[in-house]
Here is the input.
Amino acid sequence: MARANIKDVASLAGVSPGTVSRTLNGNSYVSKDTRAKILAAVKELNYQPNAAAKTLKAGRSHTLALVIPSIQNPIFPIVTQGVEDVANMQGYTTILCNTNEDTNREKQYISNLLTRSIDGFIFATITEKADYIYELREKGVPVVLVNRRNDDEIDAVQIDNFQATFDATNYLVSTGHKTIAFAMGHESINVYRDRREGYLTALKHHGIRFHPEWIMQETYGPESFYSLTKSLMASEYRPTAILAGSDIKAFTIMRSLHDSGYKIPEDVSVIGIDNIPLSALMEPPLSSVSQPLYQMGSLAAKKLISQIEHKEETGQLLPPVVDIMTTELIIRKSTL
Amino acid sequence: MARANIKDVASLAGVSPGTVSRTLNGNSYVSKDTRAKILAAVKELNYQPNAAAKTLKAGRSHTLALVIPSIQNPIFPIVTQGVEDVANMQGYTTILCNTNEDTNREKQYISNLLTRSIDGFIFATITEKADYIYELREKGVPVVLVNRRNDDEIDAVQIDNFQATFDATNYLVSTGHKTIAFAMGHESINVYRDRREGYLTALKHHGIRFHPEWIMQETYGPESFYSLTKSLMASEYRPTAILAGSDIKAFTIMRSLHDSGYKIPEDVSVIGIDNIPLSALMEPPLSSVSQPLYQMGSLAAKKLISQIEHKEETGQLLPPVVDIMTTELIIRKSTL
DNA sequence: CTGAAAGCGCTAACAG
DNA sequence: CTGTTAGCGCTTTCAG
Here is the structure.
């Protein structure tokens, strides 16, 4: 038996399709009687409006896109959950898009999604120089960025990445460390550049002479830190503490340290950034700068939906605002 | 500037919309000349067909739904990636649905998605007695199950959960263990019941007298194993090995063991199931029964798309087939 | 307060 | 080989 449509409801209730539409969407008055008849018919036929027809008519789909580099990076499921929870609550469906940091894939997604009358985008990816994102906003498409550099021309929610590593480095220094390495992600990602800057500045601040060898530069992925750590520890620049650009990097670094026979934190302290739940399960439990990932996701979704609905009403986007969320240094057992 | 539609293309190319549709969908012959003109116009206007209109007309959306309990459980991002990769490759978009094991939420998703002319569903959730899923299939909606009990009436891809724990337990016995505990997930989830059965059967097989105290029963989530482990280890039933129903459970168990001062594997061996990438980073690296999660996702997507396209052509679904993927026992350092 | 009719963008059937 | 037309299901004027 095929799905009932608005005509079926109308004829069962003995009214016209227009009236059914009006009662269901409630922007206009309908008499108590007909209203009741229609509701009964809706119930009887288990009628649910066809989304494609609505979308076609309205030019919007009550769907939003969340674009992330990889769902396999454990920070994104948390952000995703935040986005989804508020989206669902507000009657929106979320489409998840993995780009693997590939700009072309990202562009493809955008154009495909536009085709689907998507209502707006949240970009949690980190590539830069994405003119096409600015163009999107200029074309009037609601867009929110999560932890992505922007020049205040687009809504965004971020943490202060500089401050995060600045704090962590200060802590390390305050506990007596004078040789501190940093595990750096891809140079092309501004989040990591900011984090490096915070680290460097804190060092300078304390008059610690920086050695370029202290920076471990990721090459093919987080696993690259396994051998990077081994080499660094075997070199004359062996540090007494390592600040990792993310928790995942810290995990690999700890693995490498263990395998080389170093004790954490006695021989070397390790500290991460993100504070994903797994960090507390590591041995030793990882100290980390916490990022409110779930809240970042939910705030991003709220902002996006506000934009969407404001645009719906006024045809205009609201002026962009950038929200900076606070981080917190969580000290566990991996630091001395 | 609004998005170009098929009429714009038609008038720019000096032909009718029907002809444009035909060239673009290629089910009918079009002369070289007009074809070229149309393609040029498409390019010039950067025309992309409106998905909602197509969906409305065709009754299908080239979209599939992946229903999972929680994206925060690290096994699902991997399955998801598998699904997405093949879906994208074949021109389908994936909608991710988190149910938190909540049957009502699952039903809501289904009815909402049906409204959107979804082409098919992959259920990677584990609740049972889901008559509504069988009904879906009976109504002719393509459905594939991942690691979910079914009576061969629905396509599925699974591992042999019994065999997984049977093998792991045998291994433990073969290395000299005689007291082996099992960390059990929710009773309501057949995957865990099967795993428990494998464990129990292996024990019996070796003539080991089972103590009910050996079963640690999860209550409020994986974290419940923290205190469960503490109590068990403090009791007279302290085991020399613990088989965890999943890697995540194993992580919490290891944490608890460390905190109580036990050495792994010297004092107690631990073994997980899933073999997620993080397992290799644990200290000590976790031995685990590997599950081909990515492949399970990609196979599920392939099966679903076959069903969708077969239905498209013939109006019928293919007879269901259940695929059992193989597992492998990966021995690392958490077992002795 | 309600019905009729037009149209969102596309495809498929029917002519020609 | 190509144009015309109808209609997918819904909303929204416009009448009344």
User: Anything to note?
Assistant: DSSP finds twelve helices and twelve strands in chain B.
